[in-house]
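Supplementary Note 3. Input sequence used for the single-chain structure prediction.
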Amino acid sequence: MKVKVLGTAIILCLYGIALSAQKGPLFLAPLPSRSIIGYAVLMQLPPTCQCLKTYSPRQKQKPGPVFSIDIPISPFWDTVRENRIKNRTIQFGGSTTPWKETIMFGGWPIPRIIFTASNFRTSLEGGIMKTLNASPSRTMEQARLILDGSIWHALIGAEGFFGQEQILLISKGVNFNADFRRRSFGGQGWLGMKFGDFNRSFIAGRYGRGYAWTGGETRFVIPSIGELDWLPLYLEEFKTVSISVEGKVKVKWISQSVRFDRVEYERVALSPDPLRFGENRLEEMWLRSETEIVPFSRARFLRGVVIWTKDFRDQNRLMFVNDYSSVRVFLRLAF
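The predicted structure, written as C-alpha cells, is reproduced below.
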C-alpha cells in the first residue's frame, strides 16, 4: 500500500515538471505585489498625455505687424502768411512777425500710410491740394517719408521730404501781375535707443543731423506779352541738428503717445547781415500728442486718431513745407 502511494506521488511530481517546461519560466515565477503592479500600469501609459501643450487665456500673444491708412478729416493747414511772401522775407524764418496763418486746403490728399512692426516703423504722407474759398489761390504738392528701425535696443532711422507751393497773383500792378513759387527738399538721419514694442508700449530717444534746401521764384505776367520766365528771389541751405524723445502706452481700447522735438537750423553760407538777410541760426521746439481710440469692439480695424501739437518756438519748418494745424483728426483703417 505504501509502495502504491509513493508511486502515485512520484508520477504527479513528474507530470507537474513536464507541464511547467511547456508553459515557460514565468509559470513558476511568484505573483508580483500590488505596488509593483500599479507601478507597471503607470509606466505603460501613453507618453503623449504628458507632452500636450495647454493654452491659458491669460497668456498674451505677441502682436503682429499693423498696416494703417489714416484719412484726414480736418482740412486746416499752417503756412506762411501772404505779406511775408510779398515783402520777400520768407527765408528769414520765424525771426520776424507775423509768420503763420491757418488756411483750409482741399483736393487730393494722400492718406497717411503707416506700417508698424515690433522693431520697425515707416510712414508716408503728403498730397496735392488747393486752397478753398481763398484769394490768392495756393496749390501745394508735398510728401514726407519716415523710416525707423531697431536692433536689440539700438535705434536707427531716416526721413526725407519734398515740397512745392505756388501762389497765383500774389501781387497786382497797373500793367503786370506776379506769381510766386517755392520749392524745398531735405532730410536727416538719426541714432538712438528704444525700449519696448512699436505696436504696444515703448520709449525712445533720438539724435539726428540733416540738411534742408529751399528756394523762391517769381514770375511776371504782362497782359500784352504773357507769362515770363521764373526769376529767383532767394536760395537758402541749412544744416540741421535734432533731438527727440518719444513714449507710448497702449491698453485695450486706447493708446497714447507723446513726442518732444527740438531742431536747430544753421545756414551753410553764413549771412553777413542778419537784419538784411535773416538770422544764421534758427530754432524750434514742439510737443506732439497722438491719441488712438477703438470705439467698436466688433470692428477693431476702424479707429479714430486725434493729434495735438504745441509749439514753444517759431514754426521755422514752415519755411520749407506746410504743416498740419495744431489739431488734426484722422479716420484710421488698421489691418
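The domain at 75-334 is CATH 2.40.128 (Lipocalin). The chain has one domain: 75-334.
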